[in-house]
Amino acid sequence: MRDKKTVRFFLEPSLRDSAERGAHNFIGKVGDVLREAGFAIEVHGNGPDEAVRHASFDGWSIFHMEEPWGPRGVTFRRAYHYPFWGIESTGERWRWAVAEASFAGQRIDRREAQRFTRYWQERLFGEMVGQVRHEGFVYVPLQGRLTERRSFQSCSPLAMLETVLTHEARPVIAALHPKERYEPAEIKALEVMQEKYPRLEVVSGQMEELLPACDYIATMNSSVAFNGYFLKKPAVLFAGVDFHHIAVDARTDPVAALRNVADIAPDYEGYLWWFWQEMSINAGRPEATEKITMALRRAGWPV
After folding, report:
1. In CATH, what class is 105-276?
2. Which of 128, 108, 153 is nearest to 233 (CA)?
3. pLDDT tens digit string along 64-91?
4. Going by CATH, does the domain composed of 6-101+280-298 fall within 3.30.70?
5. pLDDT tens, 30-42?
6. What are 89-134's pLDDT values in tens digits?
7. DSSP notation for the chain
8. 7: β partners
9. What's the CA gap between 103 and 259, in Å, rounded?
10. How would you label 77-100 residue by residue, b for 16+ Cβ within 10 Å and e otherwise?
11. Domain spans of the chain?
12. Is the pLDDT of residue 53 over 80?
């Protein structure tokens, strides 16, 4: 039965516990907006049993980093670092409002953007900021499912890596995601590629060492590329994502993208300010409640 005045949150155990204790700042602010609009709130888990139990529910629902159920659902996730968030009708970041917006850097207060970026550089990356250099290699942070091409990708991650190796003369360091579980066939494919291209080194993690030292980043849509903006590292993207505006798009012509990345001069400071302060919800700011309201209204919610 459709319940027009109840919102159900479906959350993983740790987040559910935090929400129920009132200890999660952002969820608390979302709850305040909803209660002010006359909604009651229920908090549930997001496991398979909960999915079965709520299968017939077609009311208002909120998920964390998952595809929503039906037209009355939204998802929320961090905009890469706390306290910045997004609320959208889809879990596909390349379809989010920020992804479809145009970055207009000329409208940004330069002093404010510089101050903002310096603050977050120091807060997030600390000593790394003073270690930025160019040691003559390309950093390729890998994600999961290396042999598959998913709908938002221009090719499989392994094909991306081979493209970089084919058209880039510099050494290439490919980094496996430390939280991914890779199949033996994927590891074997990387070993074969290393035999074919002696310039290729494969490691696990090591972002803190590789990010400040690389010449640029080539990736599908790893958040490492977003982090690289804080260290003024150019990015070449082989997949759709929300932070694509100042990167080189390799989806249609990867050869040209790899050739042109050395010539770009992105407005890193203006972009980071725009992406976080204008297009995201900063849960630490007084206007967070208003931005949450606007995001829910954009999704069609009566708030």
Report:
1. alpha beta
2. 128
3. 999 988 789 999 999 999 999 999 999 9
4. no
5. 999 999 999 999 9
6. 999 999 999 999 999 877 899 999 999 999 999 999 999 999 999 9
7. ---TTEEEEEE-HHHHHHHHTT--HHHHHHHHHHHHTT-EEEEEE-SHHHHHHTTT--SEEEEESS--SSTTEEEEEESSSTTEEEEES-S-GGGSHHHHSPP-GGGS-HHHHHHHHHHHHHHHHGGGGGG----S-EEEE--S-TT---TTBSS-HHHHHHHHHHH--S-EEEEE-TT----HHHHHHHHHHHHH-TTEEEEE--HHHHTTT-SEEEESS-HHHHHHHHTT--EEESB--TT-TTSEE-SS-HHHHHHHGGG----HHHHHHIIIIISSEETTSTTHHHHHHHHHHHTT---
8. 41, 60
9. 23
10. bbbbeebbbbbbbebbbbebbbbe
11. 6-101+280-298, 105-276
12. no
**pTM for the full model?**
0.93
Q: Which residue has the tokens 């807060």?
A: 123
Task: State the virtual CA torsion across 106, 110, 114, 116 in degrees, nearest 10.
Answer: -80
What pLDDT does 55 receive?
A: 63
Hey, do 6-101+280-298 and 105-276 end up sharing a CATH topology, with the first three levels equal? Answer: yes
Placement of tokens 């392994």 in the chain: 158
The residue type found at 241 is V
For residue 272, how many other CB atoms are within 10 A of its CB? 20
The radius of gyration computed from the CA coordinates of the chain, to the nearest angstrom, equals 21
